[in-house]
Amino acid sequence: MYTIYFFFLVRGMYKNKYFKGRDDLMSIIQNIIEKAKSDKKKIVLPEGAEPRTLKAAEIVLKEGIADLVLLGNEDEIRNAAKDLDISKAEIIDPVKSEMFDRYANDFYELRKSKGITLEKARETIKDNIYFGCMMVKEGYADGLVSGAIHATADLLRPAFQIIKTAPGAKIVSSFFIMEVPNCEYGENGVFLFADCAVNPSPNAEELASIAVQSANTAKNLLGFEPKVAMLSFSTKGSASHELVDKVRKATEIAKDLMPDVAIDGELQLDAAIVKEVAELKAPGSKVAGCANVLIFPDLQAGNIGYKLVQRLAKANAIGPITQGMGAPVNDLSRGCSYKDIVDVIATTAVQAQ
């Protein structure tokens, strides 16, 4: 019975022009999208008049992936979307919204200890991203996606000020879901890479926190048992350096925090994912040779690593997705396609569940 259902599900998705020709999406992102549909959430898009965002919005609404709020001037949004069907979207102009005064006052209360005045708070809340973060903070929306035309700092600054970190979270980090075609490594070619977008040089405690967050994400979002590799240019003492020491310490901390999860380090990349290399360099490790969660030692390594895999292995890279925030707020690359935006909206919706 399940096989018959899956056949018709897949066939139906191939009829959808969004999935047509996207064989790489017939696994992880398909599962995420179906999960998003099963418990639909409301996602706010501050870049309401941006063309790729509007194209993504049309698909998200048509497929029932999420309910959407588009922020901005209504005439500008409708003109930009004149050839698209966004009739199911809610369009809100922050300045004209009945929520504006309340959000401005609440933002003032949040930030008055930092010296902000009510006048400055009202001016700040005119910004779509600040207004959108207040919508999430106050429960009007479940998550937010932005970044097609804004820098990461433009998104994270209001998110940190308004939504803040999740209870117990020591750091906010980011991850990419990497789906590598025809790949024998990882979880049938699927990996979680972290941190690739937020923390330039995490210390050992922060790196351990990133590992813990990523292991939980692998379980809760991707549905697989995490095998977490703490990456370095050294494997089990093959090199001596303060950078290696940091990874070793982070590994110890992460293991103490999650004793029931397979975490190991320090490991070179080949020892982490290639069984034959692991047997030589890290015999007896429960992670080496089969890692599916890769924790990079710093942002330079993470950013370079995911882009190498994306470009050279033609991997589908979904992200960056934030973790550790009080509610899902996710960034986009300014070079993103409308399909990338659909993927991130779907992922944000599942995080909100």
Strand content: 15-25%
Helical run tally: 14
CATH class of the largest domain: Alpha Beta
Indicate the CATH topology of the largest domain. Answer: Rossmann fold
How are helices and strands ordered from N to C?
HHEHEHEHHHEHEEHEHEHHEHEEH
Biggest β-sheet description: 6 strands, mixed
Integer-rounded radius of gyration: 21 Å
Mean pLDDT metric: 90
Total strands: the figure is 11
The CATH level-2 architecture of the largest domain is identified as 3-Layer(aba) Sandwich
Strand order in the sheet with the most strands: 8-7-9-6-5-10
Number of domains: 2
Which structural class do you get from the secondary structure elements? Answer: alpha/beta
Distance between the termini: 27 Å
Low-confidence blocks of residues: 1-15, 21-26
Helix content: 40-55%
Question: What does this protein structure show overall?
Answer:
With 353 residues, the protein is an alpha/beta fold. It folds into two domains: 173 residues, Rossmann fold, CATH 3.40.50; 140 residues, Isocitrate/Isopropylmalate dehydrogenase-like (Rossmann fold), CATH 3.40.50. 46% of the residues lie in helices and 15% in strands. The protein contains 14 helices and eleven strands. The strands form two sheets. It has a six-stranded mixed beta sheet with strand order 8-7-9-6-5-10, sandwiched between helices. Strand 2, helix 4 and strand 3 form a beta-alpha-beta unit. Helix 2 crosses helix 14. The N terminus is likely disordered.
Give the gist of this structure.
This protein is α/β, with parallel strands linked by helices and 353 residues long. Helix content is 46%, strand content 15%. The chain has 2 domains: 17-164 and 328-352, Rossmann fold; 173-312, Rossmann fold (3-Layer(aba) Sandwich).
